[in-house]
Specification:
Blueprint: E1 2-6, H1 12-19, E2 23-27, H2 37-40, E3 46-50, H3 52-61, H4 66-87, E4 91-96, H5 107-126, E5 129-134, E6 137-140
Parallel strand pairs: 1-4, 1-5, 2-3, 3-4
Antiparallel strand pairs: 5-6
Helix pairs in contact: 4-5
Length: about 140
């Protein structure tokens, strides 16, 4: 599993498209549910999963607590790892980095930011490669 992380509109998708010729996309921005990621993954393609903040926000809106959400996403990362090895094709997670900048005033916005940060840390631990993208430039961190 690979993680591409960076700020909004930093060039994360462009970096992924340049590296991988054939991709299947599971995207919250396109209305995809995270539960159907296997159905979105076409044979012999790299699976790209994006829109984590939307999926996390949805989980928070369903009144799940932070530990449950983090545990659910950790199990998902483990499932990604198993399926990636089974198919012998990579999975790329594109995540929005929200830890830099102003801390939100609203409690729910702060909670979303915190949970996103913890889930990103869990993704880093599970990933074989981590790339940070900033202004269209990428730097391999792991």
């Amino acid at each position: 599993m690979q993680l591409v992380i960076g700020g909004a509109f930093a060039g994360k998708r462009k970096i992924v498209r340049e590296k991988y010729e054939r991709c299947s996309w599971a995207s919250a921005y396109m209305g995809d549910s995270l539960s159907n990621w296997k159905m979105k993954w076409e044979n012999d393609t790299t699976l790209v999963v994006e829109g984590w903040e939307k999926w996390i926000e949805h989980e928070l809106a369903n009144r799940k607590n932070m530990n449950e959400i983090r545990s659910d996403f950790s199990h998902l990362f483990q499932a990604f790892d198993v399926e990636e090895k089974k198919r012998n094709m990579p999975i790329v997670l594109i995540m929005l980095e929200v830890g830099r900048g102003i801390v939100p005033i609203q409690k729910n916005d702060r909670l979303l930011r915190d949970v996103m940060g913890w889930i990103a840390q869990d993704a880093v631990k599970m990933s074989d490669e981590v790339v940070y993208v900033w202004n269209g430039l990428c730097k391999r961190l792991k």
